[in-house]
Amino acid sequence: QGQLVESGGGLVQAGGSLRLSCAASGSIFTINTMGWYRQAPGKQRELVASVTSGGSTNYADSVKGRFTISRDSAKNTVYLQMNSLKPEDTAVYYCNAQRYTVKPFYNIWGQGTQVTVSS
After folding, report:
1. What's the mean per-residue pLDDT of the chain?
2. Cis geometry, peptide bond prior to residue 104 (ω within 30 degrees of 0)
3. Percent residues over pLDDT 90 in the chain
4. Average pLDDT over every residue of 21-34
5. Is the dihedral of CA 100, 101, 105, 106 positive or negative?
6. 91, pLDDT greater than 80
């Protein structure tokens, strides 16, 4: 089984932008859905955005209009463009890849990347 490698986190002031990237490597293919989740201290992990292999996207209400998810299926890579960042966006962001139409099914997580938004 392969792995997901994330990059692009960091520290930014409120109102700024960051772009997260996540590349799937190894024996990962036929990924159905790729997405980004986040977990702030003391809170549960929550979905931020996801994109299917067909291009359908889903966003958390809190990020609609500010974040954009995109995917390069040929490269097994997913991106999260985050604009107009707010302090409440501070969290560890995790990449996720799921396959559920072709066996073996899987649900893989990246190691996480920290995003900190200062006020």
Report:
1. 94
2. yes
3. 83
4. 87
5. negative
6. yes
The torsion angle over the Cα atoms of residues 98, 18, 88 and 36, rounded to 10 degrees, is: 0
Please tell me the distance from the alpha carbon of residue 57 to that of residue 33, in angstroms, as a whole number.
Answer: 9
One-letter amino acid of 98:
Q
Of 32, 76, 80, nearest in space to 59 by CA: 80
Encoded tokens for 94: 């995790």
In the predicted model, is pLDDT for residue 40 greater than 70? yes
> Is the Cα torsion angle 100, 109, 11, 8 positive or negative in sign?
negative
Residue 42 near residue 51, CB atoms below 8 Å: no
